[in-house]
Amino acid sequence: DLACFNRGEYNQATSNKSEVESISYILYPDDSSPAGRELRLKQEYFFVAAGLGSIIRSYKKRNRSSSLHDFSRRVSVHINDTHPVLCIPELMRLLIDEEGMGWDEAWNITVNTVSFTNHTIMPEAMEKWSIDLLKGLLPRIYQIIEEIDRRFKEDLTARFMDDGKVINNTEILKDGYVYMAHLAIIGSSSVNGVAQLHTKILKNVIFKDYYRIFGYKFNNKTNGVNYRRFLLAANPKLSRLITEAIGPNWKEDAGELKKLQVFKNDSSFLEQMANVKYENKCRLAERVKIKQGVVLDPMSIFDVHVKRIHAYKRQLLNVLKIMHLYNKALDDPDSLRGSQTFIFGGKAAPGYHYAKIVIKIINALSQKIEHDPIVNQKLKVIFIENFNVTQAELIYPAADISEQISTASKEASGTGNMKFMMNGAITLGTLDGANVEIKDAVGDDNIFIFGLTAEQVMSYTSNGGYKSWDEYHANCDIRTCVNQLNSGFFDNMGGEFRVLFDSLMIYNDEFFVLRDFHSYLEMHDKLQTLHLNQKDWNAMSLVNIANSGRFSSDRTIREYADWIWKVRYRTIN
Q: Which of 113, 380, 412, 484 has the smallest number of Cβ neighbours within 10 A?
């Protein structure tokens, strides 16, 4: 750039500088265009190369040696999803080109250094890069990937010579693309899912051929959350109440929360818990009024749905439920038992149009209810702007109901469900992700489960047999709500919600929103009835808090340290 500048080529000099700076200017911008995809690939390689370079420099300095022959005994590189998978060929490049190792030694070190966690089974998150793009941008990296693929298929052919299907399903390079999840599994010593159900699906469905080949690599590490942040720090009044009841040891060992079980029938303790919940709801209501100018009633049920906006997470199912309640209230204002506040929040990917429309319909529904004097005393809808950890620390302690309603089999684990649980919210959800393990922890009577199972969803997906029009014609409540998406129910929206109607009716409701609608309404109604009995509700809330210790990230980190990274687990006071 300086040479260009000195020659008077000022535009060229600044252009080069701008192009380089763009790599780290905004992380993972919209990649729906060829330029966006190229920038994303540059970013992924940039962070991988910088990270490995830093690790190796640190390793050599600490060990006072230029040799990397013991590298895998002292270093673990953990891949979360497919974005950092280029670290496998990049580590191979460094070991072969920079350190002068042979292929076999470099490969042995690489595989034993790297471990891989899959966090989602959604196809769009299983990255695949155009061979032409990757080869053009990173020619040496592509050469190494090509050789990894060649050697893998050669070995596979010897083992599964009569089964070409296995080879075709597991090769890294096919159909003009580089399949990054395949590279991750082949180049790692460990492959884990993040909930028991998720890992089962990885083994038996998504990566079943790899499980045949590398069964010893696959394992489960159920997610956990930092309860010191999301309970101890975020909910200080509840934390003080817990400490007064069972002592301070739970702050070091989340398993101690189990001791709260003895207070399940203690009316005085349960009443104190309810008072804390009310104060937390007041705290959230005050913040919302200041930030968004919206008044929330802390005496109402806070029904909360905060997570990334995505079709499989089914915010649309929740919207249709609220539309149904609105329709009922118009017919009979007394049909709603008590006041209900529906709180949404979450981010949408920059290029994900569907998610943007979901946010828009939530806000449109909020406005429609707000301006209806018949309904607005019973129902309230709000979308929390700029949902982040700071907002979350106010929302989780204030929630009465935790909406965990993803299509069964689609959510790997979830962690919001755990944060809500440890703050005493009752889960309304499907048998998906970590909901299954929450149900195991609290028992059937302390969670509200509805909808298709993962097996049923996968059966429909594989074999067909589901027709959303059948649900539409069979259920007048569904028919009314779906028609309202496309009928002028939302004033001045100009048909913007047609995309939601089409997702359900034209594209056959890929995420079974209509199929689960009736059972969702039933369970929601049961929750409303239960809430009228505050003693039983508070007892259920306590059972959730008492059994949330197993979802501490302490347990998760210990399992990774013991079984994958093979390092000593240390407690820092």
A: 484
